[in-house]
Automatic annotation (TrEMBL):
<feature type="binding site">
    <location>
        <position position="120"/>
    </location>
    <ligand>
        <name>K(+)</name>
    </ligand>
</feature>
<dbReference type="GO" id="GO:0046496">
    <property type="term" value="P:nicotinamide nucleotide metabolic process"/>
</dbReference>
<protein>
    <recommendedName>
        <fullName>Bifunctional NAD(P)H-hydrate repair enzyme</fullName>
        <ecNumber>4.2.1.136</ecNumber>
        <ecNumber>5.1.99.6</ecNumber>
    </recommendedName>
</protein>
<feature type="binding site">
    <location>
        <position position="259"/>
    </location>
    <ligand>
        <name>(6S)-NADPHX</name>
    </ligand>
</feature>
<comment type="function">
    <text>Bifunctional enzyme that catalyzes the epimerization of the S- and R-forms of NAD(P)HX and the dehydration of the S-form of NAD(P)HX at the expense of ADP, which is converted to AMP. This allows the repair of both epimers of NAD(P)HX, a damaged form of NAD(P)H that is a result of enzymatic or heat-dependent hydration.</text>
</comment>
<keyword id="KW-0413">Isomerase</keyword>
<dbReference type="InterPro" id="IPR004443">
    <property type="entry name" value="YjeF_N_dom"/>
</dbReference>
<keyword id="KW-0547">Nucleotide-binding</keyword>
<feature type="binding site">
    <location>
        <position position="327"/>
    </location>
    <ligand>
        <name>(6S)-NADPHX</name>
    </ligand>
</feature>
<keyword id="KW-0521">NADP</keyword>
<feature type="binding site">
    <location>
        <position position="55"/>
    </location>
    <ligand>
        <name>K(+)</name>
    </ligand>
</feature>
<dbReference type="InterPro" id="IPR000631">
    <property type="entry name" value="CARKD"/>
</dbReference>
<feature type="binding site">
    <location>
        <position position="438"/>
    </location>
    <ligand>
        <name>(6S)-NADPHX</name>
    </ligand>
</feature>
<dbReference type="GO" id="GO:0052855">
    <property type="term" value="F:ADP-dependent NAD(P)H-hydrate dehydratase activity"/>
</dbReference>
<feature type="domain" description="YjeF N-terminal">
    <location>
        <begin position="7"/>
        <end position="224"/>
    </location>
</feature>
<comment type="similarity">
    <text>Belongs to the NnrD/CARKD family.</text>
</comment>
<feature type="region of interest" description="Disordered">
    <location>
        <begin position="158"/>
        <end position="184"/>
    </location>
</feature>
Length: 499
């Protein structure tokens, strides 16, 4: 099962692996044509009703496979308004090959005729909101026609991101009064067959239609390996306000000063709106001196202990995510305080460094993202393996046992909650230098304040490694952790963009 939004990420990741979207479209169109051929003999009337996005593009491809039929290719809209390059190229290929095409810009002119099969390729997973004209009129005509309706990917008007169908009406001025009443007009196109791509979409199984999943050649790696597509949900709403992008509390320091500071600065670079550092007062001035953008909340003394718990709890409750561990050290009273804090916390925390060893023995309602390297993983009772595939399986099993998210660092970073496993392949041997893990913990904290935990951890691993790759590309090895900070914002942006 995959949502439309996740599908768009996977699709972008496939492109980054070298499997271009246009290749996928060729498979999609072929699969749609196959579904038509199974249901009608050559010569039968087949009308393709095409929208201006890639859903329509799939049908332009299908048309090349269906020339033996009584074919009509109807584009809803002017060809200049086709929204994507690859759909336009496939439209132009039909024109160049003199495959007959039609355009319909005014819903009053829409005439479906009397085909044996209608291919509904108006809108796929890119749709938002109720159907507009001329799609609304065309949808009503398709529902009224005495034809087998084959929908491309999803019935047009169906919301593949919600659990169920879009609930707004596609009423057309002339045809809204359906004899089954308003509800029929409120539904997406009433498909007989849905040829959906790559994986089942939520809600399709509830439709009264035959749903087939077509494999369009997306490699498994486009889902497993974190890629630029995973950055899509980080795009910001221009209307956003301070606080919309998360407030992060870093709890760290005492024996060490650099670690909590790096984590906190990384969280700012990863887009958190506010980052506060709760650290022993012995290092508070030094932490503040590193970066005027940080807010420091000193805790009495020179290391974390149980006397700080009340203060920590009230601070934690005011933040979207906590990063717990960088530079805390492993004094008994500190680890005890970490355990007690987690035991009473029910928010989201990234746990790193010495704090990790506490996790297996703590009973907590919190959502934890644990970021061990392989040595720390063994310290927690987990197993590792040299082969990354084996390691991924072991990490998934251990995450399931813990009931938490693991981000196990290595040449291939493995992220899992026991159900979903992702692998980050960015990074380089220069990153074994001290402090890069603190940066990763901070980035993870910032992302965990707005994203699902597995996605946050996966994107953090990807971006941290990518920042390291950018630094090495510019300067060669001799990388230091602070080199990553300025590069985090670039590493969190998809500079390749969309096709
Ligand atoms: N990996 C894959 O699954 C592949 C899927 N493909 C197909 O691409 C579509 C998604 O394409 P996209 O271009 O993102 O969007 P759509 O074609 O669904 O629609 C965009 C189109 O529709 C207009 N629009 C948006 N909302 C409305 C509305 N309420 N009423 C009318 N029109 C609307 C918008 O302006 C655009 O013009 C996916 O479903 C697959 O079919 C590719 O084959 C690649 C591989
Ligand atoms: K469709």
């Amino acid at each position: 099962m995959i949502t439309g939004e996740r599908m768009a990420m996977v699709d972008r990741n496939a492109a980054a692996l070298g499997v271009a979207r246009k290749q996928l479209m060729e498979s999609s169109g072929g699969a749609v044509a196959g579904a038509v051929r199974e249901r009608a003999e050559p010569g039968a009337g087949v009308t393709l009703v095409c929208g201006r996005g890639n859903n329509g593009g799939d049908a332009f491809v299908a048309a090349r496979f269906l020339e033996a039929y009584g074919l009509r290719v109807v584009l809803l809209g002017r060809p200049e308004t086709i929204t994507t390059r690859i759909a336009r190229e496939n439209w132009e290929a039909l024109r160049a090959a003199e495959v007959p095409t039609e355009t319909c810009t005014d819903s009053a002119d829409f005439d479906l005729g009397d085909p044996d099969v209608v291919v509904d390729a108006m809108l796929g997973t890119g749709v938002s909101g109720a159907l507009r004209e001329p799609e609304a009129t065309a949808a009503a005509a398709i529902d009224d026609a005495d034809a087998t309706v084959v929908s491309v990917d999803v019935p047009s008007g169906f919301d593949a991101d919600a659990d169920g169908a879009a609930d707004d009406a596609h009423e057309s001025p002339g045809d809204a009064a359906d004899d089954t009443g308003d509800d029929a007009a409120a539904a997406p196109v009433d498909a007989d067959v849905v040829v959906t791509f790559h994986d089942e979409k939520p809600g399709l199984a509830d439709l009264d239609a035959e749903v087939t999943v077509a494999d369009i050649g997306i490699p498994d790696g486009a889902e497993l390996f974190v890629g630029p597509g995973d950055l899509r949900p980080l795009a910001r709403d221009p209307e956003s306000h301070k606080g919309d992008h998360g407030e992060v509390l870093v709890v760290g320091g005492g024996p060490y000063t650099g670690a909590p500071t790096l984590a906190a600065r990384a969280a700012l670079r990863a887009g958190a709106d506010l980052v506060r550092v709760a650290c022993p007062e012995s290092i508070a001035r030094e932490v503040q001196g590193f970066d005027e953008g940080l807010i420091v909340r000193p805790l009495p003394g020179d290391r974390l202990d149980a006397a700080h718990l009340d203060r920590l709890r009230s601070l934690a409750a005011e933040h979207d995510a906590v990063v717990l561990g960088p530079g805390l050290g492993d004094a008994d009273e500190t680890l005890e305080a970490v355990g007690e804090f987690l035991g009473g916390y029910d928010g989201t925390a990234v746990v790193d460094a010495d704090a990790l060893q506490v996790v297996p023995r703590v009973d907590t309602a919190a959502t934890l993202i644990c970021t061990p390297h392989q040595g720390e993983l063994r310290g927690m009772g987990g197993e590792t393996a040299a082969d990354w595939r084996e390691r991924a399986d072991l990490v998934a099993e251990f995450a399931a046992d813990l009931g938490q998210v693991l981000l196990v660092k290595g040449a291939y970073d493995v992220v899992s909650d026991g159900e979903t496993t992702r692998v980050g392949r960015t990074g380089n041997p220069g990153m074994t230098v001290g402090g890069t893990g603190d940066v990763l913990a901070g980035v993870t904290g910032a992302l965990a304040s707005t994203q699902e935990p597995v996605h946050a951890a996966a994107v953090a691993a990807y971006a941290n490694g990518r920042a390291g790759d950018m630094a090495v590309e510019e300067n060669g090895y001799g990388l230091v952790a602070t080199d990553l900070l300025d590069r985090i914002p670039h590493a969190l942006r998809d500079e390749g963009g969309d096709e």
